[in-house]
Amino acid sequence: MLIAQFKPLARVGRAFKERAAPLFAAICLSLSISIDAQAQVANALPLLGDGSDMSISAERRLGDRIVRELYRDPDFIDDPVLSDYVQGVWQPLLGAARARGDLTPELDERFAWRIILGRDRSVNAFALPGGYFGLHLGLLAVVSSRDELASVLGHELSHVTQRHISRLISKSKQQTPWMIGAMILGALAASKNPEAGNAMMVGGQALSAQSQLNFSRDMEREADRIGFGVMTQAGFEAQGFVGMFDKLQQASRLNDNGTYPYLRSHPLTTERIADMQSRLPLGAPHPAPIPFDMTHAMLSARARVLSNPGPDALRGWLKQADDVGLSRLTPAQQAGVLYGATLAASQMRDAAEARKWFARLQNLVPDGPEAVRQMRWLGLEIELTAGDRPAAQFLALGVGAGLDAVNMPGVTALRRPDLMLQAQLATQGKQPQAIDQAVQNLQGWLVSQPQDALAWQWLASLYAARNQGLRALRAEAEVRIAQLDFPGSLDRLRAAQDRLRTTGASSSSADHIDASIIDTRRRQIEALLKEQVTEP
Ligand SMILES: [Zn+2]
């Protein structure tokens, strides 16, 4: 076969297995937690309730502990373009779960409902305590449509709305939340790297207890049933559900569990398959697959490029795009390959090569707001890599003047990738007007999205570019807070206060306001840390 990207699943699977980067950070960390946890058992910490479910707040705290470590994992990735795509599926699912009453107002408010992307090439998605979810780029790379992605996310969402996790945790009464957190982190590390899994077993009892963390068959069927209702109510096609089952079935026939950790936690039992078939309309035992949509093809290629950033893999994309057989693929498949080649060249900092493939891609992509946006983001990324165009060019791209000024049919409101690219370009271009505009846009965004660590990070860079050191430190503290690293945030807030003391606050009211915000934040974080020390 000429195009490696579209080879049959079996071969894709083998290619995934070649993954090299181990996750030592995550593993060591979970080991040390596990040892700590064992030491604490001796202190007879309060046990979880007898038979009753874990409380909402206890589950959220446990989720916070786990996710704090995931954010430090080198595989954690917040790619604005892929995150935006995932949110475009996730938010409608949440909306449908609310409308159906599966997601109660209390859970809605007190859980995080946050998806964390991992650069891993394995096919996996998982629910964590407290309304956090993990999603590997490997899964984004193999789903063929938004609908398939919706079927996976709808299923995971339903595990949480049905409180399956709290029931599992209550079952393992002898474990402290710390141990459960360690077990979950250990299981995650193991799912990424089988050898690491063995190391875990030597190091602690974590994995031997892992079976306690698996959902029961009944829970799986319930998550299928409710997840199906949620995704179809959210407007996704039922075929997406079928398509995903087909993929999993194919992979399980090939015994490809190493590549599909998702299969290990979600075995395809005959009941699940029969249940799934019973949900489809009569007379339509196997609906035609959803056509491979061009935007999805491009984003799936993006997930593949970003999950496999080695030079050989990147060069492989250029080879595929150069292959004479490319024209025999469907337009959507071609778009995927050309997008991959453009991004790969851009990652290799070869702007000329990236522009070449980008031009080919432009000829192929039809008009339509979503495809236009994707093309614009990719085009801006190339310019960022190149970094050789004067600021006037950025302005011509509509970046300096605010992206909403761009004259593009159907493209109006700014989306998150627009803001992040704008900030990046403004930082690089160093044009005061562009920097001011980017700061203003990010500040506006953060009013409604105060947990957006990446937005705070760019704001910190922009403040630094404006020589506003105090504000930059505060923004950096907010990055840590959004990623639940409270000691790290306290360091920055204290550094900001030291700075104020040594340089002396000017009499300007702006400085006084900043100083008072920093002081308030420091007190809040100190109180939070104090609370954490006393909690079980
Ligand atoms: Zn499940």
Describe the structure.
The chain has helices at 9-17, 24-41, 56-72, 80-100, 105-110, 137-142, 146-161, 164-171, 177-192, 194-203, 217-233, 238-253, 261-265, 270-278, 294-307, 311-322, 331-347, 351-364, 369-386, 391-396, 416-429, 432-448, 453-465, 469-482, 486-503, 509-534; strands at residues 114-118, 125-128, 132-136. Helices cover 67% and strands 3% of the residues. It has a three-stranded mixed sheet with strand order 1-3-2, sandwiched between helices. It contains 26 helices and three strands. It is mostly helical. The model is unreliable at 1-51, 194-210 and 398-411 (pLDDT under 50). Helix 2 packs antiparallel against helix 9 (177-192). The chain is globular. Zinc ion is lined by residues 155, 159, 215, 220, 223, 266. Zinc ion (ZN) binds next to helix 7 and helix 11.
Give the arrangement of secondary structure elements.
Elements: H1 9-17, H2 24-41, H3 56-72, H4 80-100, H5 105-110, E1 114-118, E2 125-128, E3 132-136, H6 137-142, H7 146-161, H8 164-171, H9 177-192, H10 194-203, H11 217-233, H12 238-253, H13 261-265, H14 270-278, H15 294-307, H16 311-322, H17 331-347, H18 351-364, H19 369-386, H20 391-396, H21 416-429, H22 432-448, H23 453-465, H24 469-482, H25 486-503, H26 509-534
Parallel strand pairs: 1-3
Antiparallel strand pairs: 2-3
Bound molecules: zinc ion.
Zinc ion binds next to helix 7 and helix 11.
Distinct helical segment count: 26
Strand content: under 5%
Query: Over all CA atoms, what is the radius of gyration?
Result: 24 Å
Residues in helices, as a percent range: 55-70%
Strand order of the largest sheet: 1-3-2
Q: Can you count the beta strands?
A: 3
Average pLDDT, rounded to a whole number, is: 79
Shape: globular
Main sheet summary: 3 strands, mixed
